[in-house]
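call fold target=Rhamnogalacturonase A/B/Epimerase-like pectate lyase domain-containing protein
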Amino acid sequence: MKASNQKYLTYFTLVVTTALLVLVGVVIWHLLEHKRASAEIQLSNINATSLDFKKLIRPTFFNIEDFGGSIDKEDNSEALQAAIDAAIVVNKKLREDDKWDIYIGKVYIPSGIWKFQEGVKSDYGVEIFGDGISKTYMEYNGEGVFLDFSSEKEKFDLKLRDFFIKQNTSNSTAISLAQTNRNSHIDNIIVEGGGVGIALENCFTTRFSSFFIYNTKDFGVFAKNSTNTDFVDFKIENCTIGAKFTNSETNSAAGLKLISGVFQGCRNEGLILEDITNFASFSTFFEGNGRSTGRSQILATSDLNGEYDNDIVAFYSPFITGGFSSSSNSTAVLVENTKNFVFKEGFIRSNDKIKIGIQIGKNVDNAELVNNKFSGVQEDIIVEEKATNMVLDVELRHGRGYGRSFLGLGSESKKTNNRHYLESFQGLFGKNDGQRVGIGTYDGRPSLQGFGSGSSFNLFTNPKAGNHISAPNGYTQISGLKLGTTITSSNYKTDQKTHTVLVDSSEGDRKVDISTTEEQVQRYLTIKNTGASGHLVNVKSATTSIENKRTLQLKDGESVSLVHDGNQWRIVSLFSPL
């Protein structure tokens, strides 16, 4: 019996041992298989098309190292592409779910210097992130686009953050986006070198923040039809053109905004706006752009094809300075072919570089320039066409510096700390021959600059609210201002200050000679003989006639009002006492 029990015990022990060995083998096999599956993620499972996989527990992220990537390799392009392919969610219903962030694939590139020879791409949404701009460093040695996220199938979401891209060829583009939409966000990246930093086309509600792009051969940012797109807390430096925003269809780039950005040291323009529907910039800083001669720091223009002209371009609290690198005699802002232009609370400082602050060029319907300050700029504001409807400050104030100007001229005396006032303004004024008119100072007094043939007239009273300067039919007129009155008992020759001449002839006949400078269309003179002794005042024009006579005689108490019609003086009124 004991032998039989011993036999059964031995058999039982063998069975249990065998079972335990099988169980241990299954566990070991399962662990090894899981490890292998983790290293070689099966796309057939991850990219399943059934909604049953909504409950699939996806990895937190897909590490490029799990797909063969290594900082020791010369080319990690295939590894990065494989990680992206594994991460994307192909099923459209999953991507449209409200919990999209749960299903979006995340690709992780750890710290280190990663080299790439070829670009990667995806037609679907994905997130790529690193350990930070000072840790994850990617060198792209290829041509064309490095990170290409462009889809012709549908709009999709994309997130890129926390890495540095160094482009080593001059015709490459670091990041290209097309059809990105909704939650897309590019944040905390640096791009150095290459041809273009970021290229956009047909992107909607995308947000770019905390990025730095420098040393690109062509553009820091080039964008076509970027609607409701925000650029926040960024810097673009030492590119040929900092950023260019243009259109691809009607109503393009509506709601495009720049917020707290910096454009610095670009060889041509810092910013170009072309065929934009609605653009606004807030607290953007421009320094030393326009290093190439003839280039402005900001250019708003259009191809004038009749369909895509700039609609609204607005700058709020911009700061523009010539810095050390702008070309001499440069223009800070040039605006043309734009329906509505707004420049408010701005400051433009020359640094001996900027000659023209704001130039309103051809085909600008409305320009609103309010509460701006200028320092050291020779010509603060130039308006090229009379048709432009201008809205300006009630009172223009200027910073310290030399010789300010308004609409092209201004302080003829070139004294420091001149103050200029304009309390009421109606439209552009002055002739169309390139001369411009402005309110400035002359020897410390308010002065009208560039009047008529370019001379300056002292205005002995500061223009008051309600007075205005206008140019009907191209001829400058002044209303509501008191001009000079001359009282004399001697012979007198008029000059450009003369408006009314009172001549006392009590001691003998007197002469009033009208100088050649007075022979201007609509020039107006009033002359009166205030004597009472029977002597005459002989009024004579130097080069023309007065009502077909060489000399007009005024008796005691008589006065005459004359206006020049371009050929001769005409008598408007002649007064004789009874």
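return ok
The helical segments are 2-39, 43-46, 77-87, 92-95, 100-103. Residues 37-57, 394-482 have pLDDT under 50 and may be disordered.
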